[in-house]
């Protein structure tokens, strides 16, 4: 959709693009020109009718919420501005606004403006207890929460919060069980998302997230087969299809495409693989990989075992040692910057954390972040660990760059 706003001249559009190229953010330009950030951003990406000499910026560029913008968002909300109005004027997603309004964000300088509880934000969305119960009932028969949200008068993220029980309502209709939440995106939507990425590999996850009104992390999870939906025509029962995928030419791993179909099947018998722990992170070009119906990855886990022993199989976040099916201590190795395309994180100690299964999943979904300077843990909902300091054993060195990458790209700060 193109912006039709006669109050913004072609000269102004040109000046914004030049200033952006010179280092100013969309928010800074909005403040200087007294225009909504969304209008500035739309002109920067070319969503207007102007034919400027300065070309538009890439739509896939992401712009973090700075401390001044965070302060502005909180002050405007505290003054009574609705979150829908903030979304319209800033162009920020509901989830991003909520993270900064609730204080689940991190900035180089402290933001003194008041924060609010997520429940208060939900209450101001004017969803009554009766509507909350209706949302929970209605989503049962829908293909997905996203599909159901299109049929009601509330934002997808608002519907999601109420059906998941993240509100203050006490109604007879129970919230969804965690195992049911895999239906947030339907199988058909998942396949469409993957096809979009396959047909345009250079597209940014944020662009697809905007189209589907969900988080960048959700899009990444479905594109990288870390959801419950099976890959299409890529099952290990059809070895030729696996080989076609590897040799497709769409940024296929050169280190994998050399394998014959028979060798791909043989990978599943690799005795070095850890059968207890599924590899949730994407695989790097060097380790061995096999596609199964659950799109699990097998690899040499010597390094992961060494890291677990360093921490006595204890989670670096909650300091708890869990027990596996055989009664032995159990922990998982998490790659801070995921392995393989599109993240290309290394398989080295500086990029590994030892975590319990719960906090491993929270890291994967961006619910957990660690400050690269203070190692302070921030959790979006678990008060027991939020604000604690990450446990780091000597001589484990953790890369500040990988933590920063996780915070910005995976958690979307």
From TrEMBL:
Residues 306-361 form the HNH nuclease domain. Residues 169-186 have a biased composition (Basic and acidic residues). Coiled coil: none annotated. Keywords: Endonuclease, Hydrolase, Nuclease. The keyword Ribonucleoprotein does not apply. GO terms for molecular function: endonuclease activity. The keyword GTP-binding does not apply. Residues 169-189 are annotated as: Disordered. It holds the Pfam family HNH_2. This is HNH endonuclease. It comes from Halorussus limi. The lineage of its organism: Archaea, Methanobacteriati, Methanobacteriota, Stenosarchaea group, Halobacteria.
